């Protein structure tokens, strides 16, 4: 008999059936999907350290795949203010080989979308289906204790929340899980900003691989005249230098690495940097499960982190719809293994293959093979379709 066979017994008093730690996009999406599939809203608790007002002001850019749009449509959280990506141009600096992926080849209205974190949070938090969810914010979980029939969460205000199931949805890896951990320090810093170019190409995203790491420019018009969200991955010492430059010199450095496809870079927002690494341990226990960033944090190359997390939420909601049980969590873990493994390892390979030595240099043979691989993706349709399907839709 499962140690959760009595989880639905009304004599076991709990405050919630499902407690979700993290009311970011993945946590909010999970809550809405659970309600859509018949879980009573008042039996779901959402816990987050930030107020919803602070979350709405978050200016970070997010890359949503077409598959993520489908998930958001399912819970009526779409459309939102977003810039559609119709084309993705992939190239290698100073070496031959490039590929151009276009939406028409795949009969999609868009390959993806670029929006703001705050914009997505605003849409999700306003969903009528979440009106009766227990929303605990600002609040933090100080500790958790698993019992035979519930998980007791000690909150930062001194109160206790008892739930039949705990979902860790954001805020780093879930520390008390057992399971194989995949960790990697890329020795890179991701510099993020919003920039304006003199000759933007509408709806085209760029992924340019440099000796120090990938550089992404995602189309995103805003009220300040910016038209691209920048993610530039470089070695720590280079990041320190770039962050210290004035705007004019920084834009000149960006132009030197990116090239002239967008004309001149004429404006940049404030720049920020964050360390890049891979940390994945997507295991479960009979009463706890991790999804999104709590299960796997990825390198930003190809922008797959949030999209993988939203697919986690979709499958977990489907698994829990029939019963809230250990078997349902086991089914969830098994069904997510292939998609997670493919996405995690593909992202890892893409992050490492272009920065194979500490000084950012690599052999001429390797550079030739890298350029050839981009050329092959451009001409071999089965390879293109497999890659795009995984990046745009994943496996659900």
Labels describing this entry:
D-Amino Acid Oxidase, Chain A, domain 2; nine-stranded mixed beta sheet; 33% helix; 396 residues; FAD/NAD(P)-binding domain; single chain; 2 domains
Q: Give, in order, the helices and strands.
A: EHEHEHEEEEHEEEEEEEEHHEEEEHHHH
The secondary structure category is alpha+beta
What is the CATH C level class of the largest domain, in words?
Alpha Beta
Ranges with pLDDT <50 over ≥5 residues? 1-12, 173-178, 356-363
- CATH architecture annotation name of the largest domain: 3-Layer(bba) Sandwich
Q: List the domain count as a whole number.
A: 2
Secondary structure: number of strands: 19
Q: Quick one: biggest sheet?
A: 9 strands, mixed
Mean pLDDT: 85
Give the N-terminus to C-terminus distance in angstroms: 29 Å
Question: Count of helical segments?
Answer: 10
Approximate helicity band = 25-40%
What's the CATH topology label of the largest domain? FAD/NAD(P)-binding domain
Shape: globular
- Strand residue content: 25-35%
What's the name of the CATH homologous superfamily of the largest domain?
Answer: FAD/NAD(P)-binding domain
Radius of gyration, Cα only, in angstroms?
22 Å
List the quaternary state of the chains.
Answer: single chain
